[in-house]
Amino acid sequence: MEDQADKETTDIEESFSQDSLADDGEKNDNAVPTEDPYQSQEFLQRKLYFLLEHLKKMHATLPEQYQIRVSFELLAGLANSLLNDTIFEIVKGLMEIQHVTEKHLMQVREKVENDHQLEIKQWESKIQDPEELEHIIALMKIKHTKNMKETDMKLVLHLDQKVKDQQSTLEKAGVPGFYVTENPKEIKIQMYLLDFILRLSRMKCEPSK
Length: 209
Fold this sequence. Notes:
By secondary structure, the chain is mainly α. It has helices at about 1-30, 40-60, 65-70, 70-80, 85-125, 130-170, 185-200. It is about 80% helix and about 0% strand. Helix 2 packs across helix 4 and helix 5 (about 85-125) packs antiparallel against helix 6. It is elongated.
């Protein structure tokens, strides 16, 4: 008898638990989802206007020759792409990589210069004859000048490749105005656009309360 009573009690408890879960499920289904104020259509429209207005102000400060080359359509497309905050993070990351790269290349150049100075000092400590030393130092300077030119060329090529990597990354991310190019004027415009994006990243457009 006790076993039968225990079984009935267990059946009742399981039935009650299932009914409770069903009721909770219905409550969840009927719950009104909370809208993210940063994703509402109204906020996105306000943010787009905010971005475009600031871009137009920045554009107005450019030299006239570049104002002409940066159209309103380009600014509008840029503002629209910046509705996605991921673009800001991509640009910040690229700028950090560029700063690290430039610092490293500067250190490489400084090392070459130091090596040249060390080599001259070593010759000065070895050669006692002034005329012979003068001749050797003159040869060393020719050698070092050639070596430094080759080093600078390598550094420039490395920086150029970094610029192309940036252009390609931003083009793939869908940022207007960015594509792989070696045209100095186009690169200058892209630098201005990068500056715009970085300045906008420090601003905040809040949803209305």
